[in-house]
Amino acid sequence: MTGAHDGSPGSALQRDRFAFGPLEEGEALVEPILCSWEANMDHALTRSPIDVCSSRGEDAVVLGNLGVVRVLDVNAAGRDVRVREGDLCLLMPFGKLDRFGYAELAYAYDCPHTIGLLAKRTKMDARLLLPIPDGTAYSLPQWTTYGRYFTAWDNWQKAYGCWRTQVIDDDPANHLVFGWGGGVAFAELMLAKRAGFRVAMTAGSDDRIAFLRENGITPVDRRRFPALSLPTRAERTDRERHQRRRTSVREFLELVNELSDGHGVAIFVDNIGEPLYDITLTALAREGVVTTCGWKAGMRLSHLRGAESIGRHLLINTHVWRLPDSPGIRDFQEAEGWIAPKGSDVIYDFDRVPELADDYANARIGSYFPMYRVNPL
After folding, report:
1. How many angstroms from the chain centroid is the CA of residue 222?
2. 6, 61, 65, 221: which has the highest count of C-beta atoms within 10 A?
3. Which residues contact 335 (CB under 8 A, 6 or more apart)?
4. 123 and 157 fall within a common domain
5. CATH code (residue 258)
6. Quick check: 191 and 153 in contact, CB under 8 A?
7. Could you tell me if 185 and 312 lie in one domain?
8. In which domain, by residue range, is 265 found?
9. 151 and 119, same structural domain?
10. Does 180 lie in the same domain as 55?
């Protein structure tokens, strides 16, 4: 992507040649094979919440920090490098780490001098490459969804652990976990289902509703509540718009009460943000948890601190996951089949990446797992 564009996300992408130096100690030369289109790429192209070119001090940035790559060469130089030529690996999207192994800056996003996967070849620190298990039972597209699953794993562990500090021994079957939608929320609700919770999630198309139902998640048709989001700045003086929202909110909360036996949502996965946050809080049970690892539609939130304290509501915020946990999450996926259902992806060719960017931004993709193919397997 470059520093200027005409308004659409796809127009911020420019096809060009770029150069990088020889492999330094501990680096690997790789060719991306199949990569996942993530919300962070949309954020980068729309310059919101930050302009990554400006924050990195670079005129152009090669995006793409989640995908499957083939290792072409490694400069081990005596280091403990655990990948070798020919390995198929998952890129762990860590730029700068804190002292506990969590990401402070994301690879190929806001971390300077990192080269992403929107390239025919690139190089990176070999420590960021996690090999796909030998003889895996799962397809390459299924593994390419790992970013959503690894993120969901970390967020769920924190959310469930915090919930259990207040609800010590009650059966999860008596409690509802709800998600606003998206691939991370889907993966997280599948973990909640494994833990014995009731699970429900919004969806806005017949295909997605059927997909949720097929996977044991109660689908909530978002189209039944067309005015749930907060009015835009232009709509703030429109009294009819506010009345429509009140109607949508009331009907939505009635459904939540029905699904939760009148108790509200025990753990609410809200990766949307500002337009729906007040509803998330209203729908929450006492001793409930709001958990988030994304901010698709707004980062700035507000709430009444006293009301949230009296309700004993816990607010959990996580980002990415802990790098040392990566092998364990991968192994859990392989052993337990907690992975994207086969055939649930949609794949764009490399030449169509600008189209993919625009389709994603305008909600024209039915799958929770959009991808782009860079090189043949």
Report:
1. 20
2. 65
3. none
4. no
5. 3.40.50.720
6. yes
7. yes
8. 147-317
9. no
10. no
Name the phi and psi angles at 209, rounded to 5.
-65, -45
Distance CA 377, CA 373 (A): 9
pLDDT at 6: 57
Q: Do residues 167 and 97 share a domain?
A: no
Query: Looking at the 3D structure of the chain, how many domains does it have?
Result: 2
Q: Is the pTM of this model over 0.90?
A: yes
Alpha helical stretches, state H, the chain: 39-46, 52-56, 140-144, 146-166, 183-194, 206-214, 239-259, 277-283, 305-310, 326-336, 353-361
**Virtual torsion, Cα 161, 167, 172, 174, nearest 10 deg:** -150
Residue type, 40: N
The reply to whether 135 and 168 lie within a common domain is no
Alpha-carbon torsion angle 166, 170, 173, 179, nearest 10? 0
Q: Which of 3, 361, 327, 358 is nearest to 133 (CA)?
A: 327
* Cα distance between residue 203 and residue 180, in whole Å: 8
d(CA 376, CA 109): 25
